[in-house]
Predict the structure.
Amino acid sequence: MPFDDLRDLSIWMAEAGIDELELTGPSFRLRLNGDGWQAHDDPTGDRQSETASGQMPSSDVVAASTVGLFLHRHPLHETALAPEGTPVRAGQALGLLRIGTLLVPVPAPRDGIVGAMLVAHETVVGFGTGLVELHPRQR
Amino acid sequence: MISDQPRISTLGTSALLFEAPGETDLVTQERIWTLAREAESWPEIREAVPGMNNLMLNFSRPPGSCKPIEARLRAAWTAAEPMRVEGRLIELPVVYGGDGGPHMADVVAHTGLDIDRIAAIHSAPTYVVYALGSHPGYCYLGGMDPRIATPRRKTPVVSIPGGAVSIGGAQTGVSASAGPSGWNTIGSTVMRFFDPALDSPALFRPGDRLRFKITEVIR
Amino acid sequence: MIEIIATGALATVQDHGRRGTLKWGVGASGALDDLALAAGNILLGNDEHAAGIEIQIFPFQARFTDDCVFAITGADCAASLDDLPLPPWWIHSASAGQILSLGLPRQGTWRASRAYLCLAGGVDVPLVLGSRSTQLRGAFGGLEGRQLRSGDRLRAGATAKVSGHAGFGLSPPALDLPLTEGGLPAVRVLPAAEYAQYTEAAHDALWNEPWRVTPQSDRYGYRLDGTPLHPVAPIETRSHGIVPGVIQVPPNGQPIVQMRDAQPSGGYPKIGVVIEADLWRLGQAPIGSRIRFIKTSWDEAIAVGELNARWLTEARRLADLHRGRTRSN
């Protein structure tokens, strides 16, 4: 499906107050939903051609629940908690927020596949700052 | 340490160490007991622990400066009268030498005396319990004959058993339980020195008296 | 509440140690990494005197026989609950029947050697002479005065409600309060009474050379390997009280740092004393690792102690705040 038409479609959905739309065809399935909905370029649109079955995953942006320092990895570890492409379960930590000496998890709100980190390791973030993308699981 | 003034030093920020001048003797130890009782009433001091003619004063909280408490300590020492203690007399049966005295040969080599002589000299005095320390229930004794003094070992031994009778420098003592020691073990005895269930868990107290009785000398 | 399935040597119940018992020859004992134990108790909202389990040899495995809330601090030992990996320095919930496994300490951003397993309400063993710490030499305190064995069961002081939230943790003080010298972990040292009686070469070696933690190092003392330290003339001292941190020098010149299970008195000469506020660093130094000594002053040593206390106060404030905040959700 041409990207330009998809963007027009998503803008129309938002204006029409449609929360979720699922389209299926012989070689694709598309699901669009309105969480964190913004009427600008959907960054996952660039990756539309990567999926083998021609599916078009949409993404959620997981946001900070508090002011703090966003960490990709635990201070004792050298590897990231949830590297891009990792499948995660609901509740699994995608990163950490550090407030003073306290560490709180940034949990995945649902099952999914980790997308891009939107904020660098050890960046100060505010309440609601988008931290990491979470794509739905491929079926 | 031979000098005519007490030496006061720090043990990190955890404690002060007060060392009385002169040769180690009972009158000085009796004054140390008096000093300990006085210092334990001071708010900065959690516990005052006598050693051999010395006193460790453990802080409940380390002070910003040690100068005031050092001055107070010197003044208290000057004023300290020997404490008279009515102690008990307890006798311990000892097997000298053999497997229970693995370092008797080192004492023989250092002193030039034979085993029987060493056992006789060691068991002759009535010892005074100067202090407790080292491990639960262990007594530091005063009154050993300097003829059998033998330096502490170059490398401490990993474990000697409870009941071990040992010489370290000019001192002697009896282990209350198995553990490492840098002293020279010359014999063994049997006694319950410590019971943690009791209000006063140690058998001995400073001021008690102790005699060793030769049960056997194994050559 | 928990049953030990497998443990190497030297897992013991420890709190912050016994006080006021030196007069009977009973040393303080207590956790070698007192900050880690305190942090575990802080995560759980436990009383600061609560006891935990100090684990020194890995692997370690235990089964929760009841629902339990617990925390693991100290060395990061790739802990897992059944198959689920657990983040370190974190509070977790376990259901009855779940198995906790601790593996070898991971050498990530901090090389450490001891882990602390804390339970909500503290490990419930009897107080002996005012403390729950294990007195190994005297064979009392902790669990029956000994190391833990397979089959041992330990109760926690509180029944736990297993909550669904994702938990929270603390950043380890080793990372918040780093201390190195010449690229190696370091501890601060105050000179001791006999310091001046050592040679210039000994002083130079003490402050400027690395010291290796030999395999003969344990809760009683750390035997260090390095340039032998010689006095100007032989020193024979009288038996006197000592504290954990005292660096004794036996005739072979190889220093022994007295640790938490050390005798409360000794007669070897002392060249220095590792400050109380840095003992936890040494307590985590692995066998075979090297450390450096940093000469410090009374004022600095006091300041370091206050820094540790502030770290703990801040951690407790944030943890209590967060626990209260998430409980009301």
